[in-house]
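Late entry, evening session. Most of the bench is empty. Finally got around to the prediction I had been postponing all week. Sequence below, unchanged from the version circulated by S.P.
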Amino acid sequence: MAAGMKRLGDLLVEDGILSPAKLEEALKKQRSSGKRIGDVLQDMEAVVEGQILEALSKQLGVPKIDLADEPPDPEVAAMVDAEVIKRHKALPIRLDGNELIVAMVDPLNLMAIDDIRLATGYDVKPYITAEKALDMRFQELFGVQHEAAQHLDEWRKEMMKDGNTIKDMLRQTATLSELEDAPIVRFVEAILEGAVEQGASDVHLEPKEDKLYVRYRVDGMLYRVMTVPKAAQAAVIARLKILAGLDTSERRRPMDGRIDLKVRTATFDIRFSTLPTMYGEKIVMRLLNKEMAHATLEQLGFETMHLDVWKQIINQPHGIIYLTGPTGSGKSTTLIASLASIATEKVNVVTIEDPIEYQLSSINQVQVNRKVDFSFAEALRTILRQDPDIIMVGETRDRETADLAINAALTGHLVFSTLHTNDSAGGLIRLHNMGVDRFLITASVIAMVAQRLIRTLCKNCRENYEIPEHEQILLTPYLGVDKDPTKLRLFKARGCELCHGYGYSGRTAITEVMQMSREIRNMVMANASVQDIKRTSRKEGMNTLFEAGMMKVLKGVTSLEELFRVARPEEDEDSSIEMKESAGLLDELPEDIYAV
């Protein structure tokens, strides 16, 4: 550090971003970890990257550049070799007279400045930027999507030069090894690697009349990333089918397969599905990161009060626990994390799944196989002869499976399963509608848990806003009679270079945990309505999905807009402040939700 230059931590304290006590805590952690102080503060969630950059800009006397607001000129960026940009983390942005504006992660890197000056002949003016933002702009210019477009162009030229048809190409490339260097193969690899780069959970290839759309699902939302010429559609789909081990000539019926993908150090298991449509086969690929199998319950987003209750529930000696929610609401991830937390060498844990999503060495996982009539029910019958302690049935789809699972719970086993219902109370009615007797439901079910995934605000760019009157009215019942909603600090999405301009980054779970009390069991036996059961559960301490989401809103984790996208309040949910307080909603909220 140059003489007289203020330390980063001191600048953050001066700006009122950091307290002296928090800085001292960070310095202690830095001494033990050896990390940079900025990284330590971000790990502690004391500051966000944008605040670090502002302080570094002031400390170094180098201007800051936001690559979301000012993207690089592709022609200017191309003046420097991509390998040089990648090695130095320095990206040319624009020309300003005889000066070349360069975004740099380390603007004091004199070697990078010299290399770019020699390559371009221009004087270099460094600007400081976020590493993640620079990496994303680099990917757009020189990364997988750029590579995909190049491979597609190569494929077009190859087809035009040789006068080949799609059928000719497929006939000539009979084996996988012969395909490896083909441009269309590299194009498909680029699509899959691009999905991993952007954190996509699913890839959609959608055939239209004159083109093929490629869309990624990121944090639950679909975004179109490229448009592929119709002429390449058959070749792209054929290549994917080869990877999935499917018949490339069969286009009339749906097919399922699997693809293993390794990108850098991460390994992905891809569930592959085809669907014949008017303009060709639609492909959907779900990317399952095998590292997610090691996620803990604490990492899933449970509020402390919900997590404590959930841990008590899953450590019961016997009974059945249901997770409810639509496809893609994180039920399987929660179940696997729960099983991992209770699976020891002293218990025999067996799962029945369709398909097996996350693989765990500590449990025995069974794959349903419809081709040989090996259904959930048949697998469950067999498992009961395998001396299990804990059983997980991937989905309860029919009465036979429900009866077997409940009987297993009644005979001393702990059983987990899922149902497709909107809320926890609806799961009880769903079981009865399947034909399960009420006395069996009340005797076996320990808890019904509804779950959704909600997008979390980007911490770097979320912004505080003045709460309008209609939101104040909505918030008042959740705060109590002595709280003023006008003094709350709520946040909304803005969008920056670190979140691709979406305003959100990542997702977290919101849960509605309904335990089977004596009163709830009596209501089930008396054929009470879903509304009455839910009302009683709330009086006993249950938070609804909307209330759980409201806790995330009040803590600044997500926005009110996002909460309403995922969940809505019950019709009578705003009618009783006392009910909110008895449910413990206020007990979980930190003091700093109110503006200073």
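Two things to note before I forget:
Residues 144-162 form the longest helix (19 residues).
The radius of gyration is 28 Å.
Will write this up properly tomorrow.
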